[in-house]
Design goal:
By secondary structure, the protein is mainly beta. 10% of the residues lie in helices and 47% in strands. The longest helix has 12 residues. The N and C termini lie far apart (42 Å).
Length: 352
Amino acid sequence: MKQNRYLLLFLLVFILISCGTPDKDSGAIVFSQESAKRELSAIDICHLSENRALLGGNLYDIAFLSDTSFVLANDKQVIIYNTNGEQLKVVGSNGRGPGEYVSASNLFVSDKYIYVWCSMSSKLLAYDKAGKYMASYSGFKAAVKKFVVLNDEVVYFYTVNRVGKSLVKVYDLKSSRFIDGLGVVSLADVVLSLRPSIGGICVDNGKVLFVPAGELSVSVIGGGECSNLFTIDDSKFSVEVSVTAAEIYDMSPQQRYEFIASNSMVLDVSSYEGRVLVLAETGEVLLGGSAPDLSGRNLVLYEVDSSNNPVNKVSYVYPERAMLYELHDDKLYYISYDSAASSYLLRGVVSE
């Protein structure tokens, strides 16, 4: 039982400098110099200790409103904080009525609104920046991992339903209907989807950048088309699937834990001033002991410039008790649990 508890904890929180040149023969970006893995240097921004009962037990997503405020989704509420750790506003309320959510699992912040995805009722809700309810959209049947909203008009859902189905589904808010489906769900996408908050999707100058969980391949979506922007060639990023499409749905929980622990995955993508940053995990987690051994796991941050040239690749020692990684502009943030203070802690990674 003790090991199962550690496996569950691992699943919940498991939830990254060198320079190089593009490989002109393959078209993939290669970081030619491999630097040693370093300890993650981060500063404490704020403890989330105010009104802990309201914060709840499980944290699902974080999105920045500005450099000094952010919104956090947990299993009870959606809460706006400032970077002093003060709770500024509760967005909406928990429930099944208009403007309410059962479980807020994903967030997106546009220039005008805070969007909340409720996975339990498959509903998208919109609130203004003051937390006032504006609209809701329902009738979805997709297993949404992440989403973005372009110009407060079109939603791009990163979905993982079944192998062979569309990987990104495009939904028009004005007509309340799906208008397109892009990409194809792979075997790796389905198994990795057991891990919360995988893959990356972001808005970039009127277009959408997307990275599936199992590939270091960045695509750009715009004008009804999806095309490859660049692919990163990293021998340490490896995803191996040894089951068929028919077998993948019959995998036991233990088999899925082991798959996630032994394979690499993309966690996030961000665009800032022409540069693209991709956050990923590589290496292996060993599950045989009393607790998962993270010493062989790496947190990796890749940076590529506007001409698709490699800028930096930083490989970090996997931070303990870390969860909810978020790329905001060109900065990496994450939330960890501070056992000494018995509260969650927002930290910002220091660039070197």
